[in-house]
Design goal:
The complex is a heterodimer of chains A (111) and B (114).
Chain A (H helix, E strand, L loop, with lengths): L3 E3 L2 E5 L4 E7 L6 E7 L5 E8 L4 E4 L2 E6 L4 E6 L8 E8 L6 E3 L3 E6 L1
Parallel strand pairs in A: 2-11
Antiparallel strand pairs in A: 1-3, 3-8, 4-5, 4-9, 6-7, 7-8, 9-10, 9-11
Chain B lengths: L4 E3 L2 E4 L5 E6 L6 E7 L5 E8 L2 E4 L8 E5 L5 E5 L8 E8 L8 E2 L3 E5 L1
Parallel strand pairs in B: 2-11
Antiparallel strand pairs in B: 1-3, 3-8, 4-5, 4-9, 5-6, 7-8, 9-10, 9-11
The chains are: A mainly beta (111), B mainly beta (114).
């Protein structure tokens, strides 16, 4: 079945860039998402990319998609302590209702 | 309401008791999803509603789990005869339509089964 994988932890220093990686298996994925979950809260959509795009930039966030390798990454520039959270990668396919989420990457930003 | 709400926020129960978890989606959102989040695990899909009907219940872990949605709005997830392995955060999400539409998540209900 479809699967989305992420590394579990990432630790960076404040001001550095963070890169969170994700791999997925479903070649028919149409939309790929990055969600952020802060402690005690639900998930909040950060950004998404269509599968026919290679890159999307939104302020401090850059999403890169390598469709051939089924690899998605989220780069956070100038990481701040407020960016500490769990980041989930997810994918869905047009015409279906199912979203497949990864295990989440816990980002810890050190002051 | 302004966002997806869930109640209760925390529930502690004894093994063998039944629990009901409630989700109020954003008004006008036809799609509603229930997920389970266990420690160190991703989001496990449980069930999806389109309107009041549930086309896919395949994610429900056992027949102790059931869910309904009434009036195309509020949904209730019921767990009967709770077990310790049911302890997790149960998240509800709604969206305006199905794929390609942002899912808006509630804050979740943390269930602890003693």
């Amino acid at each position: 079945g479809e699967d989305v994988e992420q590394s579990l932890f990432l630790s960076v220093r404040e001001g550095d860039s963070s890169v969170i990686n994700c791999t997925y298996t479903d070649s028919s994925s149409t939309y790929l998402y990055w969600y952020k979950q802060e402690p005690g809260a639900g998930l909040q959509l950060l950004t998404y990319i269509f599968s026919n795009m290679d890159m999307k930039q939104d302020q401090r966030l850059t999403v890169l998609l390598n469709k051939k390798d089924k690899h998605l990454s989220l780069r956070i520039a100038d990481t701040q302590t407020g960016d500490s959270a769990i980041y989930f990668c997810a994918e869905s396919t047009s015409g279906t209702y199912k979203y497949i989420f990864g295990t989440g990457t816990r980002l810890k930003v050190l002051a | 309401g302004a966002g997806v709400s869930q109640s209760p926020s925390n529930k502690v129960t004894e093994k063998g008791k039944d629990v009901e978890l409630r989700c109020d989606p954003i008004s006008g959102h036809t799609a509603l999803y229930w997920y389970r989040q266990s420690l160190g695990q991703g989001l496990e899909f449980l069930i999806y509603f389109q309107g009041n009907s549930a086309p896919d219940k395949s994610g429900l872990p056992s027949d102790r789990f059931s869910a309904e949605r009434t009036g195309g709005s509020v949904s209730t997830l019921t767990i009967q005869r709770t077990q310790q392995e049911d302890s997790a955060v149960y998240l509800c999400a709604s969206s305006f339509r199905t794929s390609g539409s942002e899912q808006f998540f509630g804050p979740g209900t943390r269930l602890t089964v003693l």
